[in-house]
Design a protein that fits this description.
The protein has 614 residues and is α+β, with helices and mostly antiparallel strands. The protein has 19 helices and 25 strands. Helices cover 33% and strands 24% of the residues.
């Protein structure tokens, strides 16, 4: 059955997406939930998985093309032999009506190959195109792979890279392409197993949610669309072992135009043999991802890089979606290998690469020195996250009146409390107790007391929206760029709950496993500028929010403090700066001062013992 893959809804304000990269090509086989392509919107970069298993018959949206939500991305043939399921493909709409009676009459004609001439010549080329994509069906046109929903505000995505090309076989859930939006880069898995028959969106093209990315169909039928061969008598003989092929050949031999059948028939004997090993070769990686055996799925670029550095891909734990090995995983293995003796054998190399894989999954930016050095003297295209960051930060400064107010806070009590509780907290909760959850907790409580900060101003309607809940954004540094993950209903979480959510979202953002909905809907954002030692900064607001709080590095400094009798003394205290950037259209300087003062008082009191079970 031909299945139309459309661009799903990606968010309440997202109406379209751009195809950044196809992971599957026409003729490739895909599995259910296997990434088909990467899509990019103004909110999120993510992958579009295949809704069914089959073969990509056609790619309707090329890379860098923009597709509206609901638009067709691709057509996938799941091999069931039915017509197009969603109506997103031309096959479903054109095969209805007068075309269907013709196809019904043509179905019993495989046994009578001399009778295809009587049908009309003009309407039959359409069934002839549909039949190759179907698996044993004369009216199937493959399964279209469409851009799925990637978040509540994501309407489009951009294809950054195709992992499969036309003619490639794919398994269910095998990545087809990489898609990028302004919030997330992800892979699109194939919904069906089959062959990529067409790619509709090329790399760097934008497609809307629901738009067709590619078409997946039967591997035996796909070559029939590309074939130039005059030999028609050989097909029945070679197709006889395949029970589905004769049904496909009947419509192919029926058109009155001999040129098309000739071109559609020959490839079966030529391309069918090489296509059979491909699904097996790719099925092994798919199995290895789940079973731990065999070679994990990798792109040709990653495979080439591993071969150049003599890295055993089977020894790596991929940090990509579904365990896919990425370039950074190989580079991390190269660095680990270089630290060992050059004469190390393959077996010693495996522990080194395996130990480096978790680091790649948790480290903010595991970019090797060799990779950085390779950038010198080159011109590189900015990745999707960098492009969106460039646009959004500039737009934010143009849209709102931003200024920054800085306060200094004494966190000595929190530092002492953290030192006492971090070991037990780690054992009990399974996550590290850092300063950030304390800052987040104090911020959430302050936002409840100052609703004008947890608000948004609409320039067009002249209205202020005071949000009923606190959805706290947390800036996360990743190797692809800066992402702002969102902790929904942060006001309902305890200190431990915030620590869990921060650690989980940050880890998944860095390993490209974040969900689009977890990157949108924030009402206020906290950025840990002190993670790399910065004392303070001037954050840029995430629109349409009205403020962003920076948390500077906690450092010990000599400070003048007063005792209970009012006497001044000098003591070493743990200090941090809290810069608040706010929108002056909505928040005055006094309002900003009162808000940060509330946070300051909560932190300096340090009454978090009950939160830590002390």
């Amino acid at each position: 059955m031909a299945y139309s893959v459309t661009l799903p809804e990606l968010g309440e304000s997202v109406t379209e997406g751009t195809v950044t990269r196809w992971l599957k090509q026409e003729g490739d086989s895909v599995a259910v939930d296997e990434p088909l392509l990467e899509i990019s919107t103004d909110k999120v970069d993510t992958e579009v998985p295949s809704p069914v298993a089959g073969t990509v018959m056609k790619i309707s949206a090329q890379e860098d093309e923009t597709v509206e939500v609901g638009g067709e991305l691709a057509v996938i043939d799941d091999g069931s032999g039915g017509g197009a399921e969603t109506g997103g493909s031309a096959a479903s709409s054109e095969s209805s009506g007068s075309a269907q009676p013709q196809q019904e009459q043509e179905a019993p004609q495989p046994a009578q190959e001399q009778e295809p001439a009587p049908p009309a010549a003009q309407p039959e080329p359409e069934p002839a195109q549909q039949a190759p994509s179907g698996s044993g069906s004369s009216d199937g046109s493959g399964t279209p792979v469409k851009l799925p929903e990637l978040g509540e505000s994501v309407t489009e995505g951009t294809v950054t890279r195709w992992l499969k090309q036309v003619g490639d076989s794919v398994e269910v859930d095998e990545p087809l392409l990489e898609i990028s939006t302004d919030k997330v880069d992800t892979e699109v898995p194939s919904p069906v197993a089959g062959t990529v028959l067409s790619i509709e969106v090329n790399e760097d093209e934008t497609v809307e949610v629901g738009g067709t990315l590619a078409t997946i169909g039967d591997k035996n039928a796909q070559p029939a669309q590309e074939a130039p061969a005059p030999k028609q008598a050989q097909q029945p003989e070679q197709a006889e072992p395949r029970q589905e092929a004769p049904a496909q050949q009947a419509p192919q031999s029926q058109p009155a135009q001999p040129a098309q059948p000739a071109e559609q028939k020959q490839p079966e004997p030529q391309q069918a043999p090489p296509k059979q090993p491909e699904p097996q070769a790719q099925a092994a990686p798919a199995a290895s991802d789940s079973d731990g055996a065999g070679t994990p799925y990798v792109t040709p670029l990653v495979r080439k890089l591993a071969a150049e550095h003599d890295i055993d891909l089977a020894s790596l734990n991929g940090s990509g979606v579904g365990g896919r090995i990425r370039k950074q995983d190989v580079l991390a293995a190269v660095d680990a290998k270089q630290k060992q003796q050059p004469a190390a054998a393959a077996e010693p190399a495996q522990p080194a690469t395996q130990s480096s894989a978790p680091a790649a999954a948790s480290a903010p930016a595991p970019v090797s020195d060799s990779e950085k050095a390779a950038l010198r003297g080159t011109v590189q295209k900015a990745n999707r996250i960098r492009q969106i960051t460039a646009i959004k930060t500039r737009e934010s400064l143009q849209v709102s009146a931003q200024l920054t107010q800085v306060h200094e806070v004494d966190v000595t009590k929190i530092a002492q409390l953290r030192q006492r509780a971090k070991a037990a907290f780690k054992e009990r909760e399974g996550v590290n107790l850092t300063f950030l959850p304390f800052f987040a907790k104090a911020t959430v409580e302050a936002l409840k007391q100052h609703p004008n900060v947890n608000a948004s101003y609409n320039e067009d309607t002249k209205e202020i929206t005071y949000h009923g809940a606190v959805h706290l954004g947390i800036a996360v540094d990743t190797e692809r760029g800066l992402l702002s993950v969102v902790i929904n209903d942060a006001g309902e979480l305890s200190l431990a709950g915030l620590a869990h959510r921060i650690a989980d979202l940050a880890q998944r953002a860095r390993t490209n496993k974040i969900k689009p909905d977890e990157l949108t809907g924030g009402t206020f954002t906290v950025t840990n500028i002190g993670s790399n030692g910065a004392l303070f900064d001037t954050p840029i607001i995430v629109q349409p929010q009205s403020g962003m709080l920076g948390t500077g590095a906690v450092v010990k400094r000599p400070m003048v403090i007063a005792d209970t009798d009012g006497n001044d003394t000098i003591a070493v205290r743990s200090m941090a700066y809290l810069p608040l950037t706010y929108d002056h259209r909505l928040i005055d300087g006094a309002d900003a001062g009162r808000f940060v003062t509330t946070i300051k008082q909560r932190l300096e009191e340090g009454n978090f013992e009950y939160e830590l079970g002390l």
